[in-house]
Amino acid sequence: MFNKLSLKIGLLFFVFILIIEAFLFSTLYFTLVDERVEEVMENLLARGDTHSEVLEDSFEEMTLEHVGMMEAATDFIAVITDETGEILVNSDDLEPEMLTVLKHTDFAEMPIYSKIVEKDWQKKRYIATDSPITIHDEHAGHVFMFAPTKDIKRIVDHLKNQFLLVGIITVVLTIVTILLLSRIITLPLIRMKEATEQLSQGDNQVNLTSDRNDELGELANAITKLSTDLDRLKNARNEFLSSISHELRTPLTYIKGYADILDRSDTTEREREEYMGIIREEAAHLTVLVGNLFELAKLDRNQFTIQKQDVSIVELLTSVAVLVKPAFDDQEIELSVNCEEDVPASIDPERIQQVLLNILDNARKHSFAGGRVTIECRQEAGNITICITDEGQGIPEEELPFVFDRLYRVEKSRSRERGGSGLGLAIAKEIVESHGGQIWMDSQFGEGTAVTVQLKRGVDHS
Ligand SMILES: Nc1ncnc2c1ncn2[C@@H]1O[C@H](COP(=O)(O)OP(=O)(O)OP(=O)(O)O)[C@@H](O)[C@H]1O
Ligand SMILES: [Mg+2]
Predict the structure, then answer these.
(1) Number of the ligand 1 atom closest to the C-alpha atom of 423
(2) Distance, CA 422 to ligand 2 centroid (Å)?
(3) Which end of the chain is more exposed for a tag (fewer CB within 10 A), N or C?
(4) Strands of the sheet with 138-148, listed across from one edge
(5) What are residue 81's DSSP bridge partners?
């Protein structure tokens, strides 16, 4: 499978690498060709110079012939002229191209240095050099050397073939490398895409965990984490829904059952009143439950605003204590507020009052007559800690981690006098956390419970 991204990455790499390779190869090629041609030319010039030096020592018939004979056996052609351009010796037959070179030489001038007189190896059949013969400062003649360009062309052709071969191998290797690379890069992406598609189709069991510690590895791990979170959320939602339907069904069953009994003709007036009372109570319970659920839904969607202000913590605690006092008195439970110093807290007073009311309500519901509940507050660094302690029944250790879960109650049977819905602490936790604070619970089964709320300190204006 060759998807679009790998094609794009591959093509991009390929074009770039091809441009770089083409540039490097051509530079190398032209440098090598130039060097080779230069070498051949220098050789030819040196050869001509050697002959001219020999002739400068002895400019005689025998030496001339000797030079001619020597070059007849080689690929080079030597032409020796006198100072006017008259040919004295030529080692091979002369071709028109060579005569053209001689014709174009200015014999009137007196040359001192040897030079290359024909270097167009690409178009001409011969390259040529001219080494002057100077005897006792007098110009005596020229040694013209010709070398066939076919040798140079052969060398260059050979070089060209080698470069072509290496070039093809490089391009093939580049393509293979790029194909492999783009696959290595895109394969995890393809797997992640498939995994997210799987997620959106409702299958949360994706496992992409990889050992890579680069960005792709991080992304894969993030997707895996997302899938487990999603799975957990789904399970929590299912559990929540089934608890809710259970919570709603119980009071509705009561209401329906008692309403049916009311209909019967043999119910006495006293029974009627009692059953009506139960129906009213259950309806009220349902109203509270639905109200709490609605509140939680708003908290979940962040559709509530916290209006923080600096509030005197002692005033807040005292007013809450006044509110709940009658209920505590009824159950003969002592309630005391104990604050070392008054400090301002940066909170939404109504929301925090709601939290405290629920904690105190729990403490009262689970305390025994004659027991004591204390509200304490302390200040540490930038935090304010409120601790509500009771001497009630406590919570078994294994239940403690779940008390902040929605609809969680320690007593599973819904007794009507203690019957909460199990939402109070869940709401309290949401509210405290949205204040940037923390809430936790310590409890000893049979001895009592302490709930601690930690909030940020406000600014003291006094
Ligand atoms: N002080 C406490 N002592 C003993 N158990 C407690 C205490 N506070 C809470 N619990 C246990 O934790 C459970 C959850 O408390 P939470 O306030 O969330 O729900 P609730 O009081 O049952 O119902 P709601 O507050 O919605 O009316 C309670 O049902 C109770 O079993
Ligand atoms: Mg409660």
Answers:
(1) 26
(2) 6
(3) C
(4) 87-90, 77-82, 138-148, 126-135, 115-118
(5) 87, 142
Which sequence spans correspond to the domains of the chain? Answer: 4-155, 215-300, 309-456
- Is the distance from the beta carbon of residue 6 to the nearest atom of ligand 1 less than 6 Å? no
pLDDT in tens, 215-255: 888 888 888 888 888 888 888 888 888 888 888 888 899 89
* CA atoms of 241 and 235, how far apart (whole Å): 10
Task: Give the list of residues 6+ apart from residue 239 with CB closer than 8 angstroms, or none.
Answer: none
Query: 184 by DSSP, 3-state: which?
Result: helix
Which of 362, 368, 390, 405 has most ligand 1 atoms within 8 Å of its beta carbon, as the pocket-test mutant? Answer: 362
Instruction: State pLDDT tens for residues 363-407.
Output: 999 999 999 999 999 988 889 999 999 999 999 999 999 999 888
CA of 253 to the centre of ligand 1 (A): 23
Distance between Cα 357 and ligand 2 center (Å)? 9
**CB-ligand 1 contact for 366 (6 Å cutoff):** yes
- Return d(Cα 422, Cα 432) in angstroms, integer: 17
Both structure tokens of 256: 């329906």
Pairing relationship of beta strands 383-390 and 372-380 according to DSSP bridges: antiparallel
CATH number of 309-456: 3.30.565.10
47 CA to centre of own chain:
68
Task: Assess whether the C-beta atom of 227 lies below 6 angstroms from ligand 1.
Answer: no
How do strand 334-339 and strand 138-148 relate by DSSP bridges?
A: unpaired
Would you say the CB of residue 406 lies under 6 angstroms from ligand 1?
A: no
Two structure tokens written together for 177: 């490398």
Instruction: Give the Cα-Cα-Cα angle 151, 155, 157 (nearest 5 degrees).
Output: 110
Q: Are 334 and 328 in contact (CB under 8 A)?
A: yes
Instruction: Provide the CA 65 distance to its chain's centre, in angstroms.
Output: 83
In 217-265, where do the E strands start and end?
Answer: none
CATH number assigned to the domain covering 215-300: 1.10.287.130
Which ligand lies nearest to the CA atom of residue 285 in the structure?
Answer: 1
